[in-house]
Amino acid sequence: MAFLTKRGKYYYVKWNTSEKGKVREVRKSLGTRHKDVAQKMVTELEKLESLGKIDPFIPGFNPKRALTDDKTEKTLQCATVTDALNLFYSAKQHLSPATVDAYKRALDHFVELNRLKMASPKSIRPHHFENVIFKRGITAATRHYYFRHFRSWWKFLKKKKVVEADIFDSLKEDLPRIRENTRPKMISEQELKTLFKTFDSELQRKKALSEFDPERVQHWFKPIVALYFYGGLRKHEAGYSPYLKYSGLKGENLIFEDGELTYIYLPPTKGRKERQIPIIKELRVQLEQYLKLRGKLNSKDFVFVYQGGTSNNKPVRGDRVYREFKRYAKVAGIPTTRSLHGMRHQAVTTWIEKGFHTAEASYMAGHSSQKVTEKYTHLTAKRLKEKMEKL
Q: Which residue ranges does the record assign to the Core-binding (CB) domain (predicted)?
């Protein structure tokens, strides 16, 4: 039987056996820091061992190579593009559901548009990819989105020797450059206050209407937006999505110390890292006011729920928050480029500007790698340059 162990930052698989009264042990690195990935690898190794396909006690045994070899055997049945897609999706199950869904959306669209469902992967030509990547009416960012996902699938098929053609180097040459567009998405704290004043003004206006129902006021709007802005949460870490297991903030994610709301705790989500985010005063005020109105909250209850109507007490969806944010921003006269994810950018940038180390900001943001966080140091450098030019 295989056991999962950890040494330093990396996970290992360990086997024990007894020969002539002596205990023999073998420990092999799995080459990953992520527990969920390592656990899946151990489960697969146990299956291979039970089938007699591997012997972990033979000299030179490599668990990663054993898993790769086993997957290679399964790649032989790849007669159609559908087979090639299913093979790719199964190999990506260690990634987050959101990442796998992104691959599926892009690749399923590619197959449907080109009607390649039952075609052989070897029959795919550059113009099939061009039909999607360079079709009219899509932005440069969308073209790059399709390019990245298609290239990842094609590299996988080449590695498995399902296809041989080199396609993407020539396609890359024709891709338009993407301009730096993070800054326009970021909302300032002054704009946030304007947004909240607009919400309050709209609520006062509605109260004057004869059909106003106080039981249907959506009090969740201000606290959940404040959570994006001050806590740097992703859209579906605070809001709910039926397609993501980790989505929707729950009572168990709120950490109290001496009766005061102190931290937001999040288990591994998209970035596969758990994290605790200290709650600053401005955010605590919004959350505590909302929790008083919301009422009793159990550990498994969603924090943000709809009030009244057919959706009463159902979790607030991230997409609904986005629509409401855009609606109030338009009324408030806030630039239309602002977004919920821009608030996450703003939070991380603010943390770094206020003196947090990149590693600390990376931990609070839940980035999969510190390299992701390092791009925010470039954003702050731009702001310093802007300030310097104003002197």
A: 79-158
